[in-house]
């Protein structure tokens, strides 16, 4: 039985897990997942027990237990389906690109509802045609006619009574 073990300490290594899970029953294999670039633990791993009884016992007793300062999560691992490797390797600078600038896609025949994919640009007879985007006119450069006018500041006072200097015309 294959177990998924999460929330591990970054310092946890396979020998620690082997020792810890070995108390629950015979262990077939242990794998702590690490980052391929840095080699640092990703804080989860897999433990494969020899028999189902040992795996169920490990789930019952180890799930939520503290291991190296962290409460780990132990549950049955889900089977990973055969995933196809990405072809075209988008993101690599030395990979060949198509005319549109993207990577290549594996063709597995027409998709359901695609209308055969005859290359006419239609996505299917039951779908509405795509709306055309409005062409935006380029706005003129706001600085092309010289510097902007400065805004005049409004005087405070609000038009109330005038000061004494407004009445003195000789001064």
How does this structure look, described?
By secondary structure, the chain is of the alpha+beta class. It has a domain at about 1-75: Alpha-Beta Plaits. It has helices spanning about 15-20, 50-60, 165; strands at about 1-5, 25-35, 40-50, 65, 70, 75. The strands form 2 sheets. A 4-stranded antiparallel sheet has the order 2-3-1-6, covered by helices on one side. A two-stranded antiparallel sheet has the order 4-5. A hairpin with a 2-residue loop joins strand 4 and strand 5. It is elongated, with a radius of gyration of 35 Å. It starts with a strand and ends with a helix. Mean pLDDT is about 75; it is low at about 95-105 and about 115-120.
**Largest β-sheet summary:** 4 strands, antiparallel
CATH class of the domain at 2-76: Alpha Beta
Number of strands: 6
Q: What is the 3D form?
A: elongated
Strand order in space, largest sheet: 2-3-1-6
Work out the strand percent: 15-25%
Rg, Cα atoms, Å: 35 Å
CATH-assigned homologous superfamily of the domain at 2-76? RRM (RNA recognition motif) domain
| Class per helix and strand makeup | alpha+beta
Mean pLDDT: 74
Helix content: 10-25%
What is the ordering of alpha helices and beta strands? EHEEHEEEH
First-to-last CA distance = 102 Å
Write the CATH fold name of the domain at 2-76: Alpha-Beta Plaits
Number of helices: 3
Low-confidence stretches: 95-103, 114-118
Can you tell me the CATH architecture of the domain at 2-76?
2-Layer Sandwich
């Amino acid at each position: 039985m294959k177990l998924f073990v999460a929330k591990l300490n970054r310092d946890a290594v396979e020998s620690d897990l082997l020792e810890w899970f070995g108390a629950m029953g015979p262990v077939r294999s242990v794998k702590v997942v690490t980052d391929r670039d840095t080699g640092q633990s990703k804080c989860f791993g897999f433990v494969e027990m020899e028999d189902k009884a040992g795996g169920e016992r490990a789930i019952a007793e180890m799930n939520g237990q503290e291991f190296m300062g962290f409460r780990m999560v132990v549950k049955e691992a889900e089977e990973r389906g055969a995933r196809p490797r990405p072809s075209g390797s988008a993101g690599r600078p030395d990979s060949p690109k198509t005319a549109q600038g993207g990577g290549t896609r594996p063709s597995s025949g027409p998709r359901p509802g695609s209308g055969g994919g005859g290359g006419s640009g239609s996505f299917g007879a039951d779908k509405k045609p795509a709306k055309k985007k409005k062409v935006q006119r380029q706005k003129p450069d706001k600085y092309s006619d010289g510097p902007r006018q400065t805004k005049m500041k409004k005087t405070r006072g609000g038009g109330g009574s005038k000061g004494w200097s407004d009445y003195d015309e000789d001064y």
